[in-house]
Amino acid sequence: MEPLYQQTHKQVHEIQSRMGRLETADKQSVHIENEIQASIDQIFSRLERLEILSSKEPPNKRQNAKLRVDQLKYDVQHLQTALRNFQHRRHAREQQERQREELLSRTFTTNGTQKKILDIANMLGLSNTVMRLIEKRAFQDKYFMIGTQGSCQIARFGGRSAGSS
Known about the structure:
The chain is mainly α. 73% of the residues lie in helices and 8% in strands. It has five helices and two strands; from the N terminus they run αααααββ. The chain has a two-stranded antiparallel sheet. The longest helix has 47 residues. It starts with a helix and ends in an 8-residue tail after the last strand.
């Protein structure tokens, strides 16, 4: 039982060091995760054998052997949980990156608002020169209204200041 226990204990420490490297590895993390998971599975099978062997120990050593095996079990379960947490964080990070890229690649439009404003201005009888000035100004100064608790604030993006014409 002792050599198997020592091998298993050594393997648990190796996995702990690989978990530390996993945090710093970027592209190879999936490969390292798979190696760690395979090692954890192997340790679980060794722990089953160790439980059987610990029950066959002499009565005066049996309780100590079972405690050692239980401690190893606890350590391996902790490693398994840490690996799952890392995988969850990696998955969430990848999903956030995909969503960010999707948002950055999306183009936002005014949904015909500018065309509607120009149609209304045309109906009111504004000349083409005035309408072109409006278009130029709309391009230079892009304002949008942000409603905040009953008051209205104006934010300006590019172009001239709100007071100038």
